[in-house]
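FIELD: query
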Amino acid sequence: MRSVLPYDAPPSIRAIIAEADRATVEPDVLAEEPPRPGNPLLASPHVVARPHIAWLTDGTWRRSIGVIVENCRRLAAGEPLLNRVV
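FIELD: result
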């Protein structure tokens, strides 16, 4: 069974983990990012925490740099920028 726990309730999460013998929590974010060494959540075998770098692949890095370089060229030439959010 999956439950959604409030983002801002780390004490509640710790209590649930301490009382459960088969629960697993996979927080998307922690109350403090990056977490301090010794964070009790990260010491639990019932917590799976992953860094937010999964999007960064060779392909996404090359495309991102390509857009940056192209936007620098466009800016210098007085042209509209790519992917502009207004």
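FIELD: remark
Residues 58-77 form the longest helix (20 residues).
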